[in-house]
Specification:
A hairpin with a 5-residue loop joins strand 1 and strand 2. The strands form five sheets. This protein has an eight-stranded mixed β-sheet with strand order 5-6-4-3-7-8-9-10, with helices on both faces. It starts with 9 loop residues before the first helix and ends with a helix. It is globular. It is built from 16 helices and 20 strands. Helix content is 33%, strand content 20%. The protein is α/β, with parallel strands linked by helices.
Length: 438
C-alpha cells in the first residue's frame, strides 16, 4: 500500500515559528524530571512541600456526555476517585443551571460563556478552598478556546491537548507556553509536534474499555436481542464498509466527500458491498447534507444505511456500538486530522481492520489495516496544515480490504489491547497526576 505524508516528510520536519527561541528556552528550563522521568515544576514542588495533596478539577465534557471527550472524562475521573484522589468535574458541555454529582464526583455546570471561561477559574478556587491550596486543573478540550484573565489566577494547569494539525496552531502554542501550563499530548504525533516548539510535555493516549469493545454480534434490548446487522437492516452476507464519524461543523474534517467517492467506485463494481454511516445525516450540527453528498457521489442509495437519528442523538449504548463495529468488515476513517481518533482503536478491539489517513495521530493507530496517502491542505483559521486523503489511495485500500474477505482480525485485537483504560491509567495517568498534585 502506498504510504502518505509521514514524520519524515519535509513539511513535518520543519520547525515551528510560533514561539520565540528565548521563550522556548525559558519554558524548557522551567521544568525538571525526577528519577522516574516524570515532568514536574521544581519550584512548585518545593513551595507545596508539607501541604495537603492537591485536589483535581477536570475541565471537559460531562462524564455522562455521549461524546469522545465525555467518554475519556468518565474513564479517567472514575479511576481517579477509585485511586483515592479528590476530583471534581467542570462540565463545559452536558450540564447547565445546577451542580450535581456523578458516581459520587461533584460536577459543576457550564457557564454563560460557550467554553466556560467565565466559571472554571472560580470553580477551581471553590474546589480547592478546603485544602488551602489551589487544585490542579486538567483541561480536555481545544486549548485555543481558553480566554480571559481568570485563567491567569491559576497556578497549575495540565492540558490534555489534541493536536490535529501540523505545525501546532499558533493559538494553541500560545496557551501551552504559559508558565503554569503542563501539556499532556494524547498522541505520539502531538508530543513530537509540541516538543518541536521547545516545549516539554507528557504523554497519555486516549483509552477504551476492552471489556466492552470486543467481538460481539448481538445487541440486547428491552424487547429481546437482535444481531447488529438486523438492527442496521444490512444483509448478513454483505460486505460492509462502516464510518463512525461526527458530521459536525462546516469543514469536512472527516473527509466524507472523499470517502463517499471511493466507496462509490467499489459499490458500483460489486453489488454485495454496503455502506453504514454511524452519524447524523443532516446539517443539524452545522455539518454537511450527507444524503445529497451521497447522491452527488453516485453511491447506490439502496445499499446505504444510517444510524437511527433519534437513537444516535439519545446515545447508543457502548455494548451496541461494539456489536456494530463487529458487524462492519472495514472501518473507513481517512480524516483530515485527528487529535487521537478513538473509533480506529474501538473497531480494532472488535477485530475490524481500519483505513485511516497517514497523517497526524492516525498513523500510529493501525495494528491491522491501511494508511492512505494524503496531501497538505492549508487551514487558514488555525494557521496550520490539515491533510486531505487522496481518493485513489482510498479506493486501493477498500479494494484490498474487499479482496481479503470477511473475517475477524486477531492482529487488530492484540494491537488495541495496549489502549485498555486500566493499562493506560496505570502506565500514564498515575505517574503524571501523582507528580502534578504534589
Amino acid at each position: 500500500m502506498r504510504r502518505g505524508l509521514g514524520a519524515g516528510h519535509p513539511l513535518c520536519a520543519q520547525k515551528g515559528n510560533t514561539v520565540s527561541h528565548a521563550t522556548k528556552r525559558n519554558k524548557a528550563s522551567s521544568h525538571s524530571r525526577n528519577a522516574g522521568g516524570d515532568l514536574r515544576t521544581g519550584s512548585r514542588a518545593a513551595d507545596t512541600a508539607g501541604i495537603a495533596t492537591r485536589r483535581i478539577l477536570w475541565a471537559s465534557n460531562a462524564p455522562w456526555a455521549t461524546t469522545g471527550y465525555g467518554e475519556q472524562t468518565q474513564q479517567v475521573v472514575a479511576r481517579l476517585k477509585a485511586d483515592g484522589k479528590e476530583v471534581a468535574v467542570a462540565a463545559n458541555y452536558g450540564l447547565e443551571g445546577m451542580r450535581t454529582e456523578w458516581e459520587g464526583i461533584p460536577v459543576f455546570p457550564r457557564g454563560l460563556d460557550a467554553y466556560s471561561n467565565d466559571v472554571i477559574p472560580a470553580y477551581a478556587m471553590d474546589w480547592g478552598k478546603p485544602t488551602g491550596i489551589q487544585p490542579l486543573v486538567v483541561t480536555l478540550f481545544d486549548c485555543w478556546v481558553f480566554r480571559g484573565e481568570g485563567w491567569d489566577l491559576l497556578d497549575r494547569i495540565a492540558s490534555w491537548v489534541p493536536i490535529d494539525h501540523y505545525p501546532v496552531p499558533p493559538e494553541v502554542a500560545k496557551w501551552l507556553v504559559r508558565p503554569q501550563v503542563t501539556p499532556i499530548a494524547m498522541s505520539k504525533f502531538g508530543k513530537a509536534a509540541i516538543e518541536n516548539l521547545g516545549i516539554e510535555c507528557m504523554y497519555a493516549p486516549h483509552a477504551i474499555n476492552t471489556k466492552i469493545f470486543k467481538p460481539n454480534t448481538v445487541i440486547e434490548g428491552t424487547d429481546g436481542s437482535v444481531t447488529a446487522r438486523e438492527w442496521m437492516q444490512i444483509p448478513e452476507d454483505a460486505y460492509l464498509i462502516g464510518m463512525v464519524s461526527a458530521n459536525k461543523g462546516p469543514l469536512d474534517r472527516k473527509s466524507f466527500a472523499e470517502s463517499f467517492l471511493a466507496a462509490s467506485v467499489l459499490m458500483q463494481k460489486h453489488d454485495d458491498v454496503w455502506l453504514y454511516l454511524h452519524t447524523e445525516p443532516s446539517k443539524a450540527m452545522q455539518g454537511l447534507d450527507l444524503k445529497s453528498l451521497l447522491k452527488a457521489c453516485r453511491v447506490p442509495m439502496d445499499r446505504v444505511r444510517f444510524a437511527d437519528s433519534y437513537s444516535y442523538r439519545m446515545g447508543i449504548p457502548k455494548q451496541a456500538l461494539a456489536a456494530i463495529y463487529t458487524a462492519v468488515d472495514v472501518l473507513l476513517q481517512p480524516s483530515r486530522g485527528e487529535g487521537f481518533g478513538i473509533p480506529a482503536v474501538e473497531a480494532q478491539a472488535c477485530g475490524t481492520p481500519v483505513i485511516v489517513s497517514d497523517a497526524t495521530a492516525q498513523s500510529e493507530l493501525v495494528g491491522d489495516g491501511w494508511k492512505v496517502k494524503v496531501q497538505p491542505q492549508w487551514d487558514d483559521p488555525q494557521q496550520a496544515w490539515f491533510f486531505t486523503p487522496i481518493i485513489a489511495t482510498i479506493i486501493d485500500a477498500l479494494t484490498e480490504a474487499y479482496d481479503r474477505g470477511r473475517s475477524r482480525s486477531t492482529k487488530a485485537i492484540e494491537f488495541a489491547a495496549a489502549y485498555d483504560a486500566d493499562l493506560v491509567y496505570a502506565k500514564h495517568w498515575q505517574p503524571i497526576l501523582d507528580a502534578l498534585t504534589k
